[in-house]
Amino acid sequence: MATVKAFHGVRYNPNKVDDLSKVVSQPYDRIRHGLQDQYYDLHPYNIVRITKGREQPGDHSGSEDVYTRARDYYRAWLDAGYLLRDTKPAFYVYHQTFTLPDGTELTRRAFVGALELAEFDEGIVLPHERTLSGPKVDRLNLLRATAVNFGQIFMLHPDPDNRVNAIFDAAIAGREPDIDVRELFEKDVRQQVWVVTDPEVLAQVTAEMAPKTGLIIADGHHRYETALNYRAEMREKYPNAPANAGFNFRMVTLVSMDDPGLTILPTHREMHDYEAKTTSQILDEAKQYFEVTAMDSRAALEEAMAQATPSDRRLGFYDGGYYLLRLSDPDVMTRVVPERAEEWRMLDVSLLHELMIERVMDVSKEKVEAKENIEYHRDLDLAIQRVDEGKAQCVFIMNPTRIEEVKACSAQGEKMPQKSTDFYPKVISGLVAMPVTPDDEL
Fold first, then answer.
1. Cα 299 to the chain's mean position, in Å?
2. Quick one: 239 and 290 in the same domain?
3. Three-state DSSP state, 195
4. Average pLDDT across the chain, whole number
């Protein structure tokens, strides 16, 4: 049973920060390639100073580091009035409006609330991707230092009739949003937030969420597992804390699995610094698993890939020319990974990693995990450019994972390979934060 409660959020003070676009950011795990510097330059109170602060010489000496500075920034910004805590508990209705490459405009509707933490074996919350230890250590150190949830966990909940959205639609009807902003990195996405404090609406939503199980973590697995670890530490430290203590909850952004704005983009794989085989050899050896067809153009490849079905799996390949790789024998995955569920075996990313990357290219799971020869791209143009410039040997071009596949794998307890899903757009940081000390009771 899912317990979702309203909370007293901490938000930027619009009287102090008149342009919120300068203080919000992408989630911490997307801040790379100079983006951190851009956020630093935007505004002295940009949230990135807390969520993904710059390391400095001497940080590992034990006196000061990125985590203690994050704590100090947070406290100083509160003291100076740049951050304010809402006086009433609230749910935060969150709409993201964006345009797909084909020109279709969509709005993904969500709300931000405090979810009572549950272990995965309870069936209330389900993961769908594997996690790595490094990011969890980093996020736990930040949480220990600040005792605040700054980043969101993007979570899907079953709501086929969109009853929760209907409650919130009625609550915000005719109201201007409390936040209306576009973030630096994804300027094309309009981010709108309405603060909902009506006790009747809060009670309705909590009651509507209560019977639900099988909530799926779409984005934020490391943050969720970090919250579980932090809860365990805090329960040991404060054994007499009440059940509604803040550390027993995690701030999450909840989206209906049936929301028409729910969008998954493909993540393409660039293979670089690879010398074991030529791309001609790779394509030749791929024929033991796939029908390999040279395509006249990128457009022709994309048209062919769009015809894929759950029983007709297709990958793309680029090494200066375009190729369609069409799985010729679905039973091969049963022989290769008999221990995995059928739902996992027939994922495009599973076919790619098990057959092409590991067996044909002989790149091990350990090397993939360490990113020795692989780079992930949302932007296919950039990946192709890398090959054209001689900086990579080839690119595997992917279709997006379907939401039905995410549901099926999660239901089977199967975790997808990393970077299986790219839910678009990202849930940004800096809209609202949630303190989780023992004294913050929900």
1. 29
2. no
3. strand
4. 94
